[in-house]
Target: Arylesterase
Amino acid sequence: MRKVWVIIGFLISVSAAWAEPVRITAFGDSLVQGYGLPQGDGFVPQLEHWLQEHGAEVEITNAGVSGDTSAGGAARIDWTLADDPDALIVLLGGNDLLRGLSAEEMRANLSKILSAAEQADTEVLLVGMRAPNNYGPDYRAAFNAVYPDLAKEFGALLHPDAFAGIFERVGGDPAKAQEFMQDDDIHPNAEGVRENIEALGPVALQLVARVSG
Model:
């Protein structure tokens, strides 16, 4: 009987070793691509490292395109999903915001992306952006509502703000946030990415659990 348990234990350990990691595609703009950062300091390598440190077996593919809008993402989502990832992290909208593009157009583009993922049976984590006060109350309300509305409609996980980690760290003080930003005041530096990943990480673990469970 003891030999049987030894064999079972060996088979379990071998199965664990052979288990394939969860394949996640990070789909977005320069925030995903890692603009202005050394190769190991961007969003994708830092998130992959964070998840692995917290016990998740994952491989994350970088599908970030600097300058991409939600329309650009919608145009390339089918090609991205052709690689058949287990899960998708969608981080788009920052360039729509910078250009003052229509929140309704962004909603339609993101809806196309989430619909394509749903048809491909791919779990999604939608990462939101927050419009600042200087965009006016109407635009701000319309823009900020897009992400929670779509997450609810498609049953996607939601992380409401890509910059949540930085603003939590500085207590919402924009002046203090500069310490965590690159000189362009748009992209986080390596430490800023680290703070944002700390905030995003627990929701990303939920994404892994959805795929694994």
Observations:
- The chain has one domain: 23-212.
- The longest strand covers residues 22-28.
- The radius of gyration is 19 Å.
- The longest helix spans residues 190-212.
